Amino acid sequence: MPRFALSIRSIPPVLLIALVGLPVLVAVWAGLTAGGGATWDHILQNRLVPYSLTTIWVLILAGLLMFAIAVPAAWVISLFDFPGRRVFSWALILPLAMPGYVMAYAWADLMGVAGPLQSSIRDATGWSARDYWFPNLFSVPGLAFVLASTLFPYVYITARAAFTMQSAATLEAARSLGTTGWGLFARVGLPVAIPAVLGGLSLALMEAAADYGAAEFLGIQTLGVGIVRSWNSFGEPNTAARLALALIFIAGSFFIIAKLFQGQRGTQQTSSRWLNPRRTELPPQSAWIATLSYTLILLICFFAPVARLLWLAIESRATAVELWPLVQSSVILGTMGTIGAFIAALVFTLSTKRNRELRFGARLVAAAGYAAPGVVLGLGALFILRETGQALTGWVAIGFLLWIYVSRFTSAGVEPLQATLERLPKNLDNAARSLGARGMNQFVRVDVPLLAPGALAAGLILFVEILKELPATLMLRPFGWDTLAVRAHAYATDERLAQATLPALLIVLAGLGPVLLLSWRLSRTERT
Amino acid sequence: MPDHQSLMADGVSRIFSGRAVVDQASLSLAPGEVTALIGPSGAGKSTLLRMFAGRERPDQGVMRAGDVVLSDPSRFVPVEKRRIGLVFQDFALFPHLTVLGNVMFGLQSVAKPERETRAQAWIDRLGLTHRRDAYPHHLSGGEQQRTAIARALAPEPVAILLDEPFSGLDPTMRDQVRQSALEAVRSANIPALLVTHDANAALVHADKIAVIGNGTIRQTGAPEEVYRAPNSLSVARALGPIHRVKTRLLPEAWQSALKTSADTLWYRPEAFQIGTGEACTVSRIQMAGPITEIALDLEDSAEILAASPAARFTQASAWKSL
């Protein structure tokens, strides 16, 4: 068989690979070829270095914070019993439903001078606002806190999986050799789980690097913010392109690290006899500390911000009337984007089942799109528009926006489909063929029913991801197509937070769908 | 704690949702001896092992190491305080530590310089000297297994429990590995419990065999004794193939030689020898490696399934220069 046979059947996936990969490629190419000379000095000193340093600083702080919250929580919940353990076990995933920018709005209000926290300090002490120090959310640590509090579940999920599955027998062996308590964690649990934990952490940091909304709202000059400002405000496309290159590099390296560590998992098989380490009861004092800390984490990372937004919405009597056009455009764009990305994911998954080169190419561009922040893809689209002489209006703009959605989120659709496919027996395909099912016939009678559960999950995830998407939508939407995310961001940066609450809450509500699906799956794998 | 003490279970029971998985089981493991625990799956082997290990608490009965009570209705010593070595079917080596690191793991209470010397001694003893600095995923199955045994023995435990330790190994090397591994265990002079589903291996390698069925220990004794004189049908079945025949269908000469009044007899296939006695009709002959299975016709379409060394049928081909 020839190594690469370009048959008619491989044309759709090849075209799709080109389509999905183009925006990233254009952004990278623009970054590499952006003009040099005198401006380069200016870009380097005034833009690239400061923006990059700020970004890296935010990522380091956020990474440390996520590790500190998620890893001990995963350990204690995997191995010990205490009041509320079952609830915390899945509830700690809830913060994933909050986009970073929504978390930033809520906490900015909670921590503001007129907010409930500072007011109660003044009420209790009689001080005035100038008499005491209070942490400022509009700072690099503030942004790190906001990002960490929405993204730590990535680390929590992978650490949980590593602690419960991988080291069941190893932990038992360590105990039989006389190790207990935190010694088990430090000498066996953590070292064994560290590859998986680093994988989850890298993924979370990739998402953190892609943030635009929270940083822009908090006024922190990260690369994401810098790219949009360079294009819009300073009129420096070259700067934008260079910054995008740096951001791709940062986000891409985290993505690659995550993938490398993922490959290392599952090297150990575990005898069924010692599976699922039996949880031990925590002594009362530690149990209360555990219950209290996780209640606090949930409060800080989910319930308090949501409650505050609700309160603001009710207090300001925000009306749902002006929400309707936003919901409409969000749902229309979300649905169309979902359909596009889903079809791309389906074509990638099915047409590349047998062709390894195509599968590699498909996965590579899907991964590149996924790892590239929305700002970068948006920038890539703007460059393409400029080169082709198109104006960013009407259906052209919508077409480009949908293209970017497909490019960014196809990977999110491929994952659940691929996972479903991999669980099926390898010979199912051959069986179907030996019974005479081929082509469309096989697709309808075999592939569709088998992929249905994965397809449902993929559709839900895609829709919510697109609904939450901010930077690319902000950059490319035509006039009159504001989505919930865009309008929430506009209101919030305009210091009209009350008006931002309803769209923000709707986004969180939608985000709960995939999160609950995920937590249901996790609790199911724990039981079996 | 001196090492030469037995490990004992005295009338222990474990009840899962109303059913006694282990029911009043008593078993005494003598130091320096390998006791094989065999029985069909679901008989309670693993539950009894887990109770010895301290991973599960018996609902009744007493467990002791020498004079020390490990568990009784009022007290329970947890896994980490028992000083009982465990060897798992999948070895459960720490993937982040080398062979040396794994073996040193349980030596925390030993002074640092001595730690390595002691671990090294066990590594040498199990023939792992050249693999000392290798990580588990670079070891062969046999090497992983020996590392697991060295790791369990290094802290000088009061007993060692081996949970199907040989079933994950390549069959061609299993016998040799088993032999050398169990030698090391014996030399530690502590009680050793080997849980296995492989009755043949137990008969060959164990010093004592305990047969468990429906949660109770049915019989304990030397391999020879348990095999030759099983005290029940279930014990006999657990140790190898056994067949039934109606006494009246046997040739007259055999009936009178057996001097039995029982209706039904049970026999092992190797009980029959080919010689010059009674003539029988052979209905089938089947090669089965070192032995040959022979079916003998009786009346009423009954038959006897006998086994004989294959060499009797294939003398010429048993030797060959390769």
Question: What does this molecule look like?
Answer:
The complex is a heterodimer of chains A (528) and B (322). Helix content of chain A is 77%, strand content 1%. With 528 residues, chain A is mainly α. Chain A has a two-stranded parallel ribbon with strand order 1-2. The two termini of chain A are 43 Å apart. The relative contact order of chain A is 0.14. Chain B has two domains: 7-238, P-loop containing nucleotide triphosphate hydrolases (Rossmann fold), CATH 3.40.50.300; 243-321, OB fold (Dihydrolipoamide Acetyltransferase, E2P) (Beta Barrel). Chain B has ten helices and 16 strands. In chain B, the strands form four sheets. Chain B has a six-stranded mixed sheet with strand order 7-8-9-3-10-11, sandwiched between helices. In chain B, strands 2-1-4-5-6 form a five-stranded antiparallel sheet, covered by helices on one side. In chain B, strands 14-15-16 form a three-stranded antiparallel sheet, with no helix packed on it. In chain B, helix 4 crosses helix 5 (141-153). Chains A and B meet through helix 7 and helix 8 of A and helix 1, helix 2, strand 7 and helix 5 of B.
Distance between the termini of chain B: 55 Å
Identify the quaternary structure here: heterodimer
Total strand segments of chain A: 2
Largest sheet entry of chain B: 6 strands, mixed
For CATH, the homologous superfamily of the largest domain in chain B is named as P-loop containing nucleotide triphosphate hydrolases
Low-confidence runs of chain A: 265-274
Strand arrangement, major sheet of chain A: 1-2
